[in-house]
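User: Before I run my own analysis I want an independent prediction to cross-check against. Here's the chain; please return only the structure tokens and, at the end, one sentence I can use as a sanity check.
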Amino acid sequence: MTTTMKQLATATLLLALGNPLALAKVSPGEAARLGGPELTPMGAERAGNADGSIPEWTGTMVGAPDGVNFETGTIHPNPYAGEKPLFEITAENMSQYADRLTEGQKALFKQYPDTFRMPVYQSHRDGGYSQWTYAQVKLNATESIIVENGNGVENAFGSVPFPIPSSGIEVLWNHLLHPMAVREYALYAGAAVYPNGNIAYDKVEYDSTSYYHDPRIARDEFDGKQASFMNRMLEPARQKGEILLGHEFNNHMQNPRQVWQYIPGTRRVRRAPTVAYDTPQGAGGIRGVDEDRLFNGAPDRFDWELIGKKEIYIPYNAYQLDDPDLKYEDLLTVGHVNPDHTRYELHRVWVIEGTLKEGARHIFGKRRLYIDEDSWAAVLADNYDARGQLWRTHMQHHTYAYDLVGHHARVAVYHDLNSGAYSAQRMINEESVLPLINHDTREDHFYSPANLRRMGTR
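Assistant: Structure tokens:
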């Protein structure tokens, strides 16, 4: 039995016995493994896989690669631009790769056998994080604890709280708190693409600050407010000028998400408690609020189980999707985004599954998340209806962002398998302002209802 399998078996036994330590910090001895010969500083397996198709982790790219001049607000140069696909997975040959595909990917091959394909490239594990981030991970390993029956985390700061996890809820919290931009400003376009070829666009001015990831805040002064955002709708015309202000916290029971909304038609600011869970959001309402980045917000309506680790072909190093020469009409083909511009690599992922609790309300009866071991970010999600039928399958493309010094969420694609429609979000190809990451700061009063009122009425 491998070390990982032994840990999972022990964790399952402890959970069955009701031991609260199964959801808590690890010993200093366990934490010492981080950055050693077995585990990376983030808790991933350092070694590659048996056949070499997953390489050993290097983490040598910390910020822009050598010889690359980059400034935030410009396109990230693709460090692997010269590479060609090793092979393609199609509906005809997918049975050869079935063990390394998700049910959602298989469903897309079945639904679009003539057009959906997955170009598979050489896998890379070069992206690294700052030494400050690694230091926070090691501190979190011995200090972070789960509270409120899984709905909050305490004593965590700066990065993933549970780099050596033993439960599904710990892996989920690693996704929720994986390294993100301290400050992010962007104009992001979205689109709902329908089976008849019609496209409905939206556009948002996105402005967020993550206090949890800010190295200028002393660890012992972090007050539990995870992040704030101020998002203004620019398109479609009927929503232009609507603004959402929100605050997110590390304890969803003590401090649920706080959201205010400005509606131009009423010229009033009001609380918006429904901006959570499965409330439809984005063009066409194809995804819910808690499907942003595949899962966000309170995890309380589901019981989360750790399935284990798998080798899966996942969207990775998706620099091609941001190409400014790629027009939206060329990217947004019927059924799915144009495969000519996608990139998949074989990586190890943590697999967790959420089952809707008895008496809880949500459109999904079950949701399965696939979380990259190196970044702890969710990359694929399969969501099932109350009858247990696969309904929606989503993919979150990522790049290694030099200004973030870490992996960054790029184009997200949300497929409704029943209707045949899909939504693509976070597109930047035709926008006048490209994402600015960690370029400046916002004063706390910027993210306030008073400022929201001023922004809406000016």
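Sanity check: The radius of gyration is 21 Å.
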